[in-house]
Every structure is written in structure tokens, then in C-alpha cells.
Specification:
The chain is α+β, with helices and mostly antiparallel strands and 282 residues long. Helices cover 16% and strands 43% of the residues. The protein has one helix and 15 strands; from the N terminus they run E-E-E-E-E-E-E-E-E-E-E-E-E-E-E-H. It has a 15-stranded mixed beta sheet that branches.
Length: 282
């Protein structure tokens, strides 16, 4: 389990639905699971791969998100001081023969919608993947020798993002977790960026493939860190949206009917009062 420190900081398609899990079951994660916790307000378990094209060729590169990835201090239970956004950022590094140590990260953004009932979802996924780092000597001013020159480092990254997902995916009622054992695939826009000021280069779409995926956001901090709230399986969230919409429409119809009946009742009361007044005059 990886736990964050005290600092705050396109299409998602379920390929196979899993119906073997009870909606009311609680999952206790084994110690060896790929699981991460942010100040106990957000817990995520998953096995994930990033697939991307490092350039404009047709060579697809597949990289695993390591189980030893650390929760970044930029992870937050209240992203940008918002009570409706939480973020898990995983960071890790890998050694490269020519570039040395290269940095990578993956961020999952969760958003809470104040509907009835309150629902939350994965609203955005981003990743920064360092491809190379080249250390070069700076320019030598007159009167300097090579030992006086300062070196600088130019890095190349792939920046990947889903942007804000529309339509929203993985919608789950608050106080429940999302669970899917089978594969899910998320498409991300990708571009090649460098720190030397070169304009970004648009690349083919990248993909994040996730399996054994469970997340539990906006959860009570009193919950044990390795215990998830009752789960909604990946076969259920799509059914929840029509239910929420149906309940909203039913409430709207009821409001209109009540307003109509009250509107008809007022003239009848006024007419009755008029008749009474005429009777008193006679």
C-alpha cells in the first residue's frame, strides 16, 4: 500500500462486464495488491498499462505502471481547495542507459456531482512520460574556458490526457466503490513536448488499459485504509444513469401536478368567499 503525505496538492469502454461480485460485498485488499491510498479519503486498486506511440511511426510501446509506484505529494483530498474533486497521482522513475533516470507519472481525477443521490466518477486521466534527457553544455562567454561553462538539460516528454470526460464514465453513488475485474480501455490524446521551446507535436492516441480496477473516493476517513466500501460492479454504473434521470423526471412531473392543482384551488376558494359575502349582505 502506498499512502500520500500530508501535502495537498476518450472514451472509456468496459470490454467485459463482471457479474460475479455481489453489490453489497466488501473487499479487503491483500498486502501484495497494487493499491494506493490518499490520506484515507481516496483508495485505488488496479493493474495498469500505458500504450503510446513515441513518435509518428507505427511502433506502439507498452509500459506497465509499476506496483511500487509512489503516491505523489501533489495527490489531494481537496484538489484546488475543492470539496468535489480528489486526485491520485502516481509517480515512478526508470533507468535508461543513455539518459539516466527518467520520471513518469499518472493522475486520476475524481469528481463528485451533487445529484440525488450524490454520484461520483473518474472525470479525467493524465500522464507525463519522460522519454529522454540530454545534458548539453551552455554557450561560453568571452574570457571563459570549458571548465566555466554551465550545463543544461533538455528533456522530451509525452503528455497524455483524456481531458474532461464527456460523457462521464464509471458513475458510482457516494459511499460505494467501483469494481471491475475485467479489462477497461481509456483513450488519451497524446503530444510530444520538449523543454527547449520546440512546439508540441501531436501524436497518435495513447491508451490506458486497466484491469482488477477498484476505486473508492470521497470516503469516510475513519474507514480502514485497506477496506473498500460496498462495491458497484462495472456492469451496473450504466444502469444507474437512467434511474437517476428517471427519478429526476418523476420529481419534475410531481412538482408540475401539485402546482396545477394548487392553481385550480385558489379560484374556487375566492368564489366561495364571494358567495358568502353576498349572503351576509342579503
Amino acid at each position: 500500500e502506498q499512502v500520500a503525505g500530508d501535502q495537498d496538492h476518450q472514451l472509456v469502454v468496459p470490454l467485459v462486464s463482471d457479474s460475479s461480485h455481489s453489490g453489497d460485498a466488501q473487499l479487503i485488499l491483500p498486502a501484495e495488491s497494487d493499491s494506493w491510498v490518499v490520506e484515507n479519503c481516496l483508495a485505488v486498486k488496479m493493474v495498469a498499462q500505458i500504450k503510446f506511440y513515441p513518435n509518428n511511426s507505427n511502433i506502439l510501446v507498452t509500459k506497465n505502471i509499476p506496483a511500487l509506484a509512489k503516491v505523489s505529494p501533489t495527490s489531494s483530498c481537496s484538489y484546488l481547495n475543492s470539496t468535489t474533486t480528489q486526485v491520485l497521482t502516481l509517480e515512478w522513475s526508470e533507468a535508461d542507459r543513455s539518459s539516466g533516470i527518467l520520471a513518469r507519472n499518472l493522475s486520476l481525477y475524481f469528481s463528485l456531482n451533487n445529484t440525488i443521490p450524490p454520484m461520483y466518477t473518474v472525470s479525467m486521466i493524465t500522464s507525463m512520460y519522460q522519454l529522454s534527457r540530454n545534458r548539453v553544455l551552455g554557450e561560453m562567454s568571452p574570457g571563459q574556458n570549458t571548465t566555466d561553462m554551465k550545463s543544461k538539460s533538455d528533456s522530451t516528454f509525452i503528455r497524455m490526457t483524456t481531458n474532461i470526460m464527456n460523457p462521464l464514465q464509471f458513475m458510482v453513488p457516494k459511499n460505494r466503490s467501483f469494481l471491475c475485474e475485467e479489462s477497461l480501455t481509456v483513450e488519451m490524446m497524446a503530444e510530444l513536448i520538449t523543454t527547449d521551446g520546440t512546439p508540441p507535436v501531436k501524436l497518435k492516441k495513447a491508451m490506458l488499459k486497466i484491469s482488477s480496477f477498484q476505486f473508492d473516493a470521497f470516503r469516510p476517513t475513519s474507514l480502514p485504509s485497506l477496506q473498500f466500501q460496498p462495491a458497484t460492479s462495472c456492469s451496473s454504473p450504466n444502469d444507474l444513469v437512467p434511474i437517476v434521470v428517471g427519478c429526476s423526471l418523476a420529481g419534475l412531473v410531481l412538482f408540475i401536478v401539485i402546482g396545477y392543482l394548487m392553481g385550480r384551488r385558489k379560484p374556487e376558494v375566492k368564489g366561495y368567499a364571494t358567495v358568502v359575502e353576498q349572503g351576509e349582505v342579503e
